[in-house]
Amino acid sequence: MQVKDAVAVVTGAAGGIGAALAQALIDGGAHVVVSDLDEERLTATAERLGAVAVAGDAASDEVIAAMVAAAEEHFGPVDLFFANAGVGDGSGLAADDDQWQLALDVNLMAHVRAARRLVPGWVERGSGYFVSTASAAGLLTQIGSATYSVSKHGAVGFAEWLAVSYGDEGVGVSCLCPMGVDTDMLRSGMTSAGGEGGKVAAAAVTGAGEVLAPHDVAEQVLRAVEEGTFLITPHTGVHEFLRRKVDDHDRWIRGMQRYQRQLKENS
Fold first, then answer.
1. Can you list the alpha helix ranges (DSSP code H) found in 126-248?
2. SS3 83
3. Strand partners, 129
4. H or E stretch including 176?
5. What percent of the residues of the chain are helix, what percent strand, and what percent coil, each to the nearest 5?
6. What does the domain layout of the chain look like in residue ranges?
7. Which end of the chain offers a freer environment for a tag, N or C, measured as fewer CB atoms within 10 Å?
8. Are 89 and 194 a contacting pair, CB within 8 Å?
9. Do residues 196 and 99 lie in contact, with contact meaning Cβ atoms separated by under 8 Å?
10. First vs last Cα of the chain: how many Å apart?
């Protein structure tokens, strides 16, 4: 999928990876609709970038419909959808049902609902592209956060299913699985609602590898879209960690247990 002249929607775009994706898309000649729950920050970002803003919950069918309608009204049919909005906290077994529902809604079901709305039209047209922002946690796990780990595994699984099911019908799919990226979620999102678990979760991410700038990640994502690459891992270490997990699951778990102990001792 070529970015130039494409119509794109990016969720979770008030800042972080989402804003960087929107900037990279516009720089590449795309027409962009941005969305986020934080209306004030979203409006400022949209004005800075020259994008169309639709504020609201990325997991809401009504808001997804409004994003698509805004894109069609201003630019034409949506070619690219970036399901980038995400939530995370430091919850373990103490997470209540509301916390689980929020994580599953935003990190997984938002992707499902957007695909449900867009993919049939893409199949009819013979082209379209869906980009899922998951996480290395969706390939490995997230020490300190059960809700984040499980919901991101779901996002990876859905992206894989989407690629297998519709790849022969003109629908491209990419799945972004970074470790640490310099975003609000990493700086404060995990810790604000998770107490000690959030601190351990953030430390696990920052201690596992380099924390990348959002614009560097965005450049890799757009390159993957243009090349039709499914799995995007900006941190090269993710492939090695995943290989170790697949080669010997028990050994990998023991290693993660040791890493968790170290993190707790140093927190």
1. 146-166, 184, 190-208, 214-227, 237-247
2. strand
3. 80, 172
4. strand 171-176
5. 60, 15, 25
6. 7-241
7. C
8. yes
9. no
10. 45
CB 230 within 8 A of CB 166: no
The dihedral built from the CA positions of residue 22, 25, 29 and 32, taken in this order, carries a sign that is negative
* CA 248 to each of CA 135, 139, 239, 242, 254: distance values in angstroms, whole numbers, following the listed order: 21, 15, 14, 10, 10
- The CA distance from 254 to 183, in Å, is 30
Question: Which two tokens mark 124?
Answer: 């009819």
- 164 closest CA partner among 175, 153, 148, 177: 175
Phi, psi of 124 (to 5 degrees): -65, -40
Asked: is 7-241 a CATH 3.30.450.20 domain? The reply is no
194 CA to centre of own chain = 20
pTM comes to 0.92
pLDDT (0 to 100) of residue 265: 84
Count of all residues that appear for the chain in the document: 267
- pLDDT by residue, tens only, the chain of 267 residues: 899 999 999 999 999 999 999 999 999 999 999 999 999 999 999 999 999 999 999 999 999 999 999 999 999 999 999 999 999 888 889 999 999 999 999 999 999 999 999 999 999 999 999 999 999 999 999 988 999 999 999 999 999 999 999 999 999 999 999 988 877 765 564 444 455 566 677 666 666 667 889 999 999 999 999 999 999 999 988 999 999 999 999 999 999 999 888 888 886
CA angle at residue 200 from 253 to 156, to 5 degrees?
55
Identity of the residue numbered 42: L
Q: Tell me if 189 sits within 8 A of 16, measured CB to CB.
A: no
Cα separation, 114 vs 94, whole angstroms: 30
